[in-house]
Structures are given as C-alpha cells and as structure tokens.
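Researcher: Here's the sequence for the chain we discussed earlier.
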Amino acid sequence: MTAKVEIYTWTYCPFCPRAKALLKKKGVEFTEYSIDGDEDARAKMAERANGRRSVPQIFINDQHIGGFDDISALDKQGKLDELLQ
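Model: Thanks. This is the structure I predict for it:
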C-alpha cells in the first residue's frame, strides 16, 4: 500500500520545490494544492495544519507532518520511509 501524500504549496515559496523534490526522490506520488492567492484554501490548510499558515504543509495519510524542515528532519532520522509505506 502506498501512502496518501498531500502538499499545500505557493508559487514563490522557496521550500515548496525542495519538499516536492524530496518526495519525488522517494518515488512518492502526491496531490499538490496550489493555494496562490486563495484565502479560502489557505484557511482550510491552516485548519488541517493546527493553525500553521506557512507553506509547504505536508500531510501523509491525513496526518499533519509539517513543512519542509519537518519532512527533511524525518528523512534524516530514517523515519520518513516508514511513513511513506
């Protein structure tokens, strides 16, 4: 079974391409929600992300992971692959 991965992004976010590149490197397919200028979408993301409004915000199997620093830290700790299975 492959994990359900969702990522909220913004066009001019420098960390969004890094997060997507990490997921692609892992061979993971993901659903991307580009929330550029869409305050309703950003509000929905913030609701799911415990109030966090920065991007990217990443979810794996509906569990909030956080942003690029968070997913990168999980990868360095060897815990990301387990979540992605």
